[in-house]
Amino acid sequence: MKDKAKSTRASMSMKEAGFKSKLDQTLAKLELSRNALAVESKVRPVTINSIYGEDAKQLNFHTLKQIIEALDRLAAEKNFNKKHSISDIVDVAEVE
User: Fold this and answer.
1) To the nearest whole number, what is the mean pLDDT of the chain?
2) What angle do CA 67, 89, 38 make, to 5 degrees?
3) What is the pTM of this model?
4) What is the pLDDT of residue 29?
């Protein structure tokens, strides 16, 4: 029984686990597409789309770091003085 609970948690999406994507807001502020972020961050477009759509089942720190660094570079190109963080990508959904 314990193994079943563990596997269920491992297969939860971001949304099911109570996380909300903020990538849509971040990309809108920078006037960027998901594809532009994927190219700059060297993260597969399907991964960017799964975060954007809150379907991701796991995120690793290396991927998050690549996305954050790419957002910073792209923001600098647009003369935005902003350092991005994990909270610009995902956040905990508000409890209702």
Assistant:
1) 89
2) 35
3) 0.85
4) 96
Residues 6+ apart with CB under 8 A from 67: 37, 41, 43, 48, 51, 89
Q: Which three-class secondary structure string do you get for the chain?
A: CHHHHHHHHHCCCCCCCCEEECHHHHHHHHCCCHHHHHHHHCCCHHHHHHHHCCCCCCCCHHHHHHHHHHHHHHHHHCCCCCCCCHHHCEEECCCC
* Per-residue confidence (pLDDT) for residue 95, from 0 to 100: 58
Write out pLDDT tens, residues 26-47: 999 999 999 999 999 999 999 9
13, with CB counted inside 10 A (0-12, 13-18, 19+), is: middle
